[in-house]
Amino acid sequence: xxxxxxxxxxxxxxxxxxxxxxxxxxxxxxxxxxxxxxxxxxxxxxxxxxxxxxxxxxxxxxxxxxxxxxxxxxxxxxxxxxxxxxxxxxxxxxxxxxxxxxxxxxxxxxxxxxxxxxxxxxxxxxxxxxxxxxxxxxxxxxxxxxxxxxxxxxxxxxxxxxxxxxxxxxxxxxxxxxxxxxxxxxxxxxxxxxxxxxxxxxxxxxxxxxxxxxxxxxxxxxxxxxxxxxxxxxxxxxxxxxxxxxxxxxxxxxxxxxxxxxxxxxxxxxxxxxxxxxxxxxxxxxxxxxxxxxxxxxxxxxxxxxxxx
Length: 309
What we know:
This protein is mainly α.
């Protein structure tokens, strides 16, 4: 491809996990297995909550939407990464690169807001149990989910609006397995320092503020329950431990990557893989598969399918 100043980049070269052919095949098998597990577990949770009337409550409604977002978050880049392990030249078109940036921020932003909504749900359930049914109505839950997606889309469009019109005429090598915003914006053939500061600070501010809001809400819940009873404290602590674990695993890599966007740390690629591949698998394991109601519902659904066949 012509890399002259008057040319426009039509494709980007992705630097996935490197290694000899045998290692690439191992990566292919390993991440294919992981991706199939993500699809299986998250889809199973969504279907179980849909078809089991006992789980038609606000908490499980939000949990099913979290599993759906995890399906989307793992799909915007992982299949491309898996396919690239089988080819020598790992390339992606300019349009495909912009699409990855768009979907990453849509799903990432939506999941951040949904985790905040889930924290609000736990706050109402634990701190205001008598008013829970009235506050967390179906209309309110639907509004929280739609609001999460709306914020995700608006956040992504605000990022894409600036980068899509930048001139890309020189380097086209992205040191990641997908088009990550901090890496792509540095390839533009113009001074983007101030734009990088603005866009990445906005992303990091969104992640840090959401993370801080979640930790504050969990602290308020624990303080409230502690004043009531030791039994309630134990139940709340068990519930919130799962929430805090998921929140930390999701926000930790995201905040680290966007806190130091101008460096080139070897850990960035590992954190990107963790963020897009491992976290969508850990969420159902931590949230749902440790939940007795969900396990019981899955068993009932399985027996129902066996008896019907």
